[in-house]
Records
---
Amino acid sequence: MLDVRRMQVLRAVVSSGLVTAAAANLGYTPSAVSQQIAALEREAGTALLERAGRGVRPTQAGRLLTEHAATISRNVAEAETALAELRAGRTGRLAVRYFPTVGARLVAPAVARVRREHPGVRIDLRLHDPDDPFGEVARGGADLALVVGAPHAPVPGVRLVHLLDDAYVALLPADHPLAAKRVLDLADLAEQPWVGSEPPGPCLEPVLQACAAAGFSPDVVVDGQDHATARGFVAAGLGVAVIPRLGLTGRHPGVAVRRVRRPEPVRAVHAAVRESALTHPPVRDLLDALREAAAARP
């Protein structure tokens, strides 16, 4: 295998035409340069230089390797420039995964800010797999994911950054007797028919745990599976629902929104960030923008 450093020594000799001049330019002794050329000739299996008066000139094999050495130097210089651009956050790819209810309130303004500050960075923005929200970050397929809750055991190579605690509120038909109260005890909903608004998983668990603490299990008569559908069912008078505040998008004339207490269900929203990605300026800036968006939410 040819030694790239020795090829650059050969290039220096060919450029100057003299071993002594090449040695002076490289900061080597003439003997060290001669030894490098001799070692490269052994690797190549052929002579690379021949005498020409007081100096030397390349053989056909020497010219070939000199041309390749120049190409290697250009490629290395281009690689160094590209690396510097990447490290400065001017180029590269930022892969972000999120879940629907943080899209408009957190992800959209944060990503918009990163695009303004890093226009050369390509952003890969997609919903994550609800059954494996940490998976892509842990496997290196994504740099950051917005997740609810936290794993019971730490995920190697992934750092969790707390963004906010998202409290749940009750949705009632506007003409429901309980709508007259500004704040509801969770137990007030114990005997009510419920409209499900969350699929099984970390967003449903805080509701079920809070209901258990209040001494009941919700009687789910309609399974809406998403906040907009649940709100429509509530407006139609089919039951009550409990959804996170981030799930409130606009007002529905047939729905009353009330705070819940004793206990108040709350879900924790985190950014799961790949440790190695934290050295990339766009990732750090996205994390800052997410914190800012979380602090600014109503």
Note: The CA atoms of residues 234 and 245 lie 16 Å apart.
---
Amino acid sequence: MAKQQKISVLPKESSDSGWFATLSEVSEAKTLAGNVNTDWVVIGGGWFGTSAARRLAELNPNDSVTLVDAGRIGNNAAGRSAGFAIDLAHNPRSKNFADNEQGNINESFVNRAGIDYLREAVETHNISCDWSPQGKIHSAATLRGAKCLRTFAEALSRIGEEYHWYNAEEMREITGSSHYHLGLFCPGTVLIQPAALLRGLVDNMPDNVTVYENTPINEVIDHDAYKTLNTSEGTIKAKKIILANNGLISSFGFYKNAAVPIYTYASMTRQLSDNELERLGGKGPFGLIPADPFGTTVRRTADNRIFIRNVYRYEPKFTSPLDAVDAARRIHQQSFAARFPQVADMGFEHSWGGALCLSQNNGGTVFGELANGVFGAGFCNGTGIAKGAIFGKGVAELASGKTSRVINILSSRPRPTSWAPKSIFGLAVKANAAYRLRKAGKEV
């Protein structure tokens, strides 16, 4: 980090996450006004940041911890996800995924540790977030998709992971849809209402944590012994910083141009009526992961809404424009009608975009000390809930002088690198996304 770092890119969204919009009650935001002195400041209130702040407070009960988010926690990138806390994902960007046995073992180990840390908070504080350890179903609507699932199953068999097949009729009985030819069920994944869990984590932080929302940082000054963080309404003076803002770490001077901010788009219906539920059929809440990574993720939520997610866009300004949300909503309606024609005329109540961050070098992650007194965790490359929780917990432990198997695994992973100018790389990403969307076919 430079001695003085101006922050030029801040997250700003054009619509609320449906998960956040449907919360029954949200505590009023506390915004920083004035000057604050703190031992630790955590920047970013997503899965990384809430876990890092919580763990810092647990390990350092005599220290003050300040958690800062530029917007509302639960309506940020973390609260815009599909709500799958995944223990082991089929990594579509890794060509050798099926053969990378030790990598898959390590991946499942760290992700399960992240899920366990979240589960501990849910159970300790009785957080109401529709926590459901019911697993996920990888769904195929094409012969190509079925082939992809069989490759995934072979990889699972080699590392001793459990799975179960569903044929087309069983998929229809579960989902109410005749769209799918094959399903691969994997236990271990937890389905959640992500905004509800994030709000529950914030409302139940240890006593030595102070949370500020709607408080974007616009400048950081490094004085070596301490750091000054300026906002529009005040100043934070901190001994140490943890950057838990995923791809926006680059705005703070680290791994410049290495981030690939990809936005995925989602829509959610209102709650289905009794008549609509009868027409829909199926067996209640479920979560479907598409066989093709550019296919459609589908959930039937605990409160009986249909959630659809597809469309991937490169958004270098870390924002989802309203016209992009509207365009995605039209595609979502087509995907909805293809799967659930019996209720698709109800349309959607909410549509939104949400960021995930890939790295140019395909899998590079941020974890560790980035400068004197500055630690960071980010570039999750997908599977953000479980990864974010364990990356945040792990970097807090590392910053507190601890070591563990998780820390060793995360510390050994490659760091993000940049091999092309942002403008050229952006064009390549857009062209690749358009090609892969067409190739996905009926999986969309």
Note: The chain is about 30% helix and 25% strand.
---
Amino acid sequence: MTTTTLGPTRRSERALAPDLIRGAMLLFIALANAGNCAFAGQPGLDPDPHGIARVLNFGLSLLVDSRAYPVFAIMFGYGLVQIARRQERAGADPRRVLVRRNAWLVGFGLVHAGLLYFGDFLGAYGLLGLAATFLLVRRTDRFHRAVLWLWGLQSIYLVVLPVLAATHDWSGGAGLVNSPNPSLAADSYRASIGDRLAEWPAHTLSVLPAIVIVWLGIWAARRRILENVDQHRTLLVRTAVIGLGIAVLGGLPYALVAAGVLHPAAGTVDILALLHDVSGEYAGPGYIAALALLGARLSRTGRVGAVAALGQRSLSGYLLQSVCWLVLFAPFALDLGGHTAFAVLAAVGVWLASVALAAGLHRRDHPGPAEKVLRRLTYGHR
């Protein structure tokens, strides 16, 4: 192989589906993180909902919480293979690019966490990317089939956890409780920086088991599923139905707790929360499959360009959201937290604004500012 690497992927080389998926799912990231910041804790839902808050709690818990990050984990793995494949076609060693890019992602994550938001995923993805570069990316198809077996084994939880929940006390009167994040409740920006830097390592380590989710994206990319949606339509339909079906059924009991409908014992709520989280991983492939199918249909009408433009600039869109949450919800800023409805409206508004900004950059053929910096650090001046 040569030592010369290609520059970043050109606009004409990009497939629509991955960008559309990233752009659309940034709305779910916004909904999850806005709630986290509005209530200074996780999962970021009103612990004593009334009226419309009951409906919003139910919908957010059932469709968003613990259901958005698996999409980006899969897409991250998918992107690793796309980058590696492009370098290999040019006769270059893909590991050089992947190592530089993922190492810089860790740096981006540290800065993001220190300045804006403790719940950063960039650092964790950088570490996962480094591990995948050396352990997974250049393996054979036979080796990668193992990830399907791992997902199959994990499905045992989907049988065991409902049985455990059914045998526990359902008359205890407990409900949803937010786990506090001190950085989100800090009374000064300086204090929040210290809290975020203390919280970030533990949060980053908690994301590392997502290597199995990233690995599924690597498997899918090797089969070019999102580049050839029509060819894999049957697989995508089945994945959408089964993945989203598991996510909805597994998340339903906890969503009813979040809505204030069910009040089981605290131990039962813990089991339902675990079932909610495990089943949420299946929303990752489910949402990706559904959006890929939808994108294939809408692409004929030209109605997905702005959302896909945001997907091409997802790093900038993600960082912009964190700036907005700090301004809107921090106690030392506007301090508008504590209301689920406002958090949802803010999330939708920020996402729509980021779509409009991305569309404007796309018309001028400009990358997002964060993408521009990351590309310069990864590829140099190419």
Note: The first strand starts at residue 41 and ends at 42.
